[in-house]
Request: fold
Amino acid sequence: MNGTTNRNFPFLIAFVILFALFYGVGLLTKSFDWTWSRILICLATVGGVNIVWSLLKKVSLVQSFRSTGFGAPDWHVVAIAFALSALMLVFFPLYSALTNLTFSLQSDWLWILLGIITGVGIAEESLFRGFVFNYLRGKHAFWKAATLSMLLFGAMHLLLLLWLPIPVAVAAIILSIVASYPMAFLFETSNRTIWAPAILHTTALATNLFEIPTELSVLINLLWIGVIVIGLFLAFGVTWFVVRKDIKVASIERRLHV
Reply:
């Protein structure tokens, strides 16, 4: 037991430092424009992840950058993530058609989207998939590594209780726990890169792009969380089918060439 704890100690210390960096930059820049704050969080987190990985694994920063999820992905998995994100976003025109509620985009929605991509899609995936899950995956089977990373990912989302309505915060915390497995699977099957999970993670914050009436905010956010859960498990299932199919095809081709 002590041996296991000692082996995990550098990783745990590294995670605490990286999370403090991620969260601390957010606190230090909270008076900044929101998107500029997310960009700075992204730069600090990605830089920190790569420096820490380089030190832990004793590799160059260039190798570290590729190893922590910034290499070339499996484009089939990325395409699945894009397709399912587009399908999930149908929720907004569908809800609008059913309720006669018009969802207007924020005037600066592109600038907000950039903040979501950098501060959530890239920064959080770099930390929790590129570093946490990736490191644990080097020592454990997929399900154990995904479960251990889920504990840290879920714990981080407890902070949502500080600023979101309680029903939405609780639903988002449950979502973060459930999402850990599909996100880890997308990372793993996409050549251990963050791009596919980052796409879906970015899509998960799509409600930030719209002007939503205050009285409907909780309802729409809860419905949207339900859509995200369905989308994530579709991503898991479709990716599983595609990857398994590719494995079978490759196996047949190897046998034919023997």
